[in-house]
Write a structure and sequence with these properties.
It comes from Psychrobacter nivimaris. This protein is α+β, with helices and mostly antiparallel strands. It contains three helices and four strands; from the N terminus they run αβββαβα. It has one domain: 2-Layer Sandwich (Nucleotidyltransferase, domain 5). Strands 3-2-1-4 form a four-stranded mixed beta sheet.
Amino acid sequence: MFDKKAARLRRAKKTRAHIRFLGVHRLTVNRTSKHIYAQIISPNGGEVIAQASTLDSSLRSGATGNADSATSVGQMIAERAKAAGITKVAFDRSGFKYHGRVKALAEAARENGLEF
């Protein structure tokens, strides 16, 4: 039987290994049907430098499961990364397709100063 989550995590494993080899900060995205989350994780994987999600009080009032809210999360994570002194990251989409909300978040982060 096909397990959708296991297949997604299997796809993500190779990307994470490559990012670990590069030794750079990692912008990780997780999406559910209702929310989207983004974190910037240190190269050793042990520390979260910045985070943003649709659970933040400023974004929670409207719809949280659409591309517009993902764009807002992308802008917020870019601002928080710049405040922490990070401009260059590797994009870890966690096995999700680069489409829809994941793409909107990535493009908004790029437009606001993050380099992938």
